[in-house]
Amino acid sequence: MRALFGITTMAFALLAIAGPFTSGAAGDVGVVAQSTRVAKPGEMVQVRVACGFCDDGAEFPVSMVPLAQYPAPYPCGNNALCRPGTRKPPRRFPYVFLGKTESVPAPAKWGSVRADSVIRFRTPEVEPGRYAFVVYCGPCMRGPKGSLITSGPNTKRGNLLVMAAARTSPSAVAGESGGDGVGAWAWVSGALVLAFGLGLAMWQRGSRGIKSR
Q1: Which of 8, 28, 163, 190, CA to CA, is 20 to 30 A from 73?
Q2: pTM summary value
Q3: Which residue blocks in the chain are alpha helix, DSSP H?
C-alpha cells in the first residue's frame, strides 16, 4: 500500500512539473486579434496575444519577419511538429523587434480560462511586403530556449501587409513651409523683380551722370 502511494505521489509530481512544458503548450499561445492587417510605415497597429496556460500578468516579446522567412515548425517525432527555439527574442535581421505585450483583461466569454496581453506599436520602416508576427514564449520549451510562435502563411490572423510609404511631393513640402507652393514662388518672383528694378535705376542714374559731364 505504501509502495502504491509512493508511486502515485511521484506520478502526480512528474505531471505537475511537466504540465506547463507539454507539446501542446506552444499551441496554447498565439495572436488572436489585431487592429488591422494592412498598414504603412508609421501607422499604429495593435496585436492581442492569448495564453491558455498562463496566469494573469503574462507578457510576451513580439517581433516581425518577412513571411517568406518565418520560423516554420519542423518534424520532431512520430506525426509531431516542433517549433524552432532561441535563447532570446529575435532582434537581428531579418527580424524586427517590436517590444513586449502588456497584460489586459481577457474577453468576458473566456473568463479566467486564458490570459491576454496586448502590444501597440508603429509600423516600422521596412520593405513593402507581407510579414509574420513572431511571439517568443519562454515557458513553452524545455531548457534555456523559448519557442518562436507564428501563425504561418496560410492564415490571415498573425500576418501584416506593409504598404509602401506615401512619397512627399515638392509642392507638398513647399505647402508645409509656406501655406502653398504658389505662395513660395510668389515671394521668389517678387524678390527677383525688386532686384532687377534696383539695378535698372542705378544704371540710369549712372548714365545721366556721364551725360551731364
Answers
A1: 163
A2: 0.66
A3: 2-18, 170-178, 181-212
